[in-house]
Structure formats: C-alpha cells, structure tokens
UniProtKB/TrEMBL annotation:
Coiled coil: none annotated. The keyword Acyltransferase does not apply. Its cofactor is Mg(2+). Keywords: Hydrolase, Magnesium. NCBIfam families: HAD-SF-IA-v1 (TIGR01549). GO terms for biological process: small molecule metabolic process. One of its GO terms (molecular function) is hydrolase activity. This is HAD family hydrolase. Signal peptide: none annotated. It comes from the Bacteria.
Length: 246
C-alpha cells in the first residue's frame, strides 16, 4: 500500500461516532412511558431500541432522498419496532403526540462518547483543524453537538449545506474546503462502513471505519462495502492520534 500523505485535518461523522445516539434513543424510548411497553424486559428494550436505531426498512434513507419528512421517517421506524414487538400501531393522533414528546426528550440525553474529548484535545494541541460532516441538516446537528458539550466543533456540514448526502463526494469535499486542507491530507472517521469509510475514500479522503469494540453501530453494512477498500479500521477514537502522527 502506498505511503499516505501526512494528515492536516480531521472530519468526523456525528451519530454513533461523536454522539452516542443509540443510547439517547433508548433512554428516550423508555422515558416516554408508554403503558403498553411496561411489560418489556431489559432484553425486550434492547431489541426494540436496536431495531428502531438500525432502521432495516430504510426510512431514514427515504428521508435523505426527499421521499419522507424527518418526522415521518421517525414515526415509521417506531411503528415497525412496535409491529415486531407484537404491539398495535399508533393512530395518527397518537403518532403525532409520540413524535412531539420524543423530539422534546431526546436532546436531554445527548452525550459524547468518552473517547471524543481526549482526541479533540490532542488535535488542538497539535494545531490540526477538525470538523463534522453529517447526513442530517446543519441546524439540527448543530444543536445536537452543543447539547452533547461539543461546541468546540465549529466546522459543520449538513445535507442542506451542499444539497447532497454521504456518500456523495460533494459533502465530504465541502468539509475539506472549510477546514482549508486537501482531500488526501484529511481523515474522515465514521461508524458506517459503506457511507463513511468507503465513501470518504472515493472522495479522495483517508477513510477510517470506527467499529467500536464495546458499542458497535446499529448500522454496520459490511456486506455493502468492498472488502479491499483503502480504508482503515479503528475500535476507538483513542487510536486516531497515532494515525495523525506528529
């Protein structure tokens, strides 16, 4: 494998990379206190939350393609999770109230993973700029980063910033432009193998797949990605400093 250029900048995915969204989702789903879920065991909650987060029917992708609203994709995901749990679907009024309550409660539980701040401290010490590129709209993700205590991440590109979603090269390259680096000198780190790691490599960046050892992403998609892609794999963000070098 040819020698990679020295890293001059780092871009991150947000959900399940910087922010533990799945944990926030799980806490929120339980906190809503639906009476018909009171019988759930811890294993039931884990299955229910994992299904909601993984979205096997692709409703979030339909949102990215402009076929569903953000609220609709979320409701369809919970309806599917309820169906698989043997529960009756929410009617339209109940679904609307559920979504409003979910939207209000979810931001209360946004937390950064423990390995995020130490890496950002290291990048700051080395004078290496960093930012985030996300498959959601800018303002929603700005609020999420702030709620998770990550106000220091100032560069942020959302799907509305360039009218494109990962793995389209345009969204990665906008992040590179804002950092003031070159694609080949920029790491992109994310939990989705195909969309993040392989997509970043295709855009000319150095793609890194974050496959967390203790908290694997609900959206892994190994089967959709080439086994011989020029990406690297880390099990924690604590491994990234060594890739950046001195």
């Amino acid at each position: 494998m040819p020698l990679r250029p020295q890293v001059r900048g780092v871009l991150f995915d947000i959900d399940e990379t910087l922010v533990d969204l799945q944990a926030a989702m799980g806490t929120t789903l339980q906190g809503l206190g639906e009476k018909d879920l009171a019988h759930f065991t811890p294993a039931d909650w884990n299955t229910y939350t994992s299904l909601f987060a993984a979205d096997p029917q692709g409703h979030y992708d339909a949102y990215l393609a402009g076929h569903l609203s953000f609220a609709d994709q979320r409701v369809l995901r919970v309806q599917h999770a309820r169906e698989q749990a043997g529960l009756a679907p929410l009617d339209s009024d109940a679904a609307r109230m559920w979504n409003e309550a979910y939207e209000e409660m979810l931001p209360l539980h946004f937390r950064a993973f423990d390995d995020v701040v130490p890496l950002l401290d290291e990048l700051d010490m080395r004078g290496i700029p960093y930012g985030a590129v996300s498959n959601n709209v800018h303002d929603y993700q700005r609020s999420k980063l702030d709620a998770a205590g990550l106000q220091r991440i100032e560069v942020l590109v959302g799907i509305d910033s360039v009218g494109a979603a990962k793995p389209d090269p345009a969204i990665f390259l906008e992040g590179v432009r804002l950092l003031g680096t070159e694609p080949g000198q920029t790491l992109y780190i994310g939990d989705n193998l195909r969309v993040d790691a392989v997509g970043a490599c295709a855009a000319g960046l150095q793609g890194i797949w974050l496959d967390r050892a203790e908290n694997p992403s609900p959206v892994r998609q190994e089967s959709d990605a080439p086994a011989d892609g020029d990406f690297r794999t880390v099990r924690s963000l604590s491994e990234v400093a060594a890739l950046v070098g001195s």
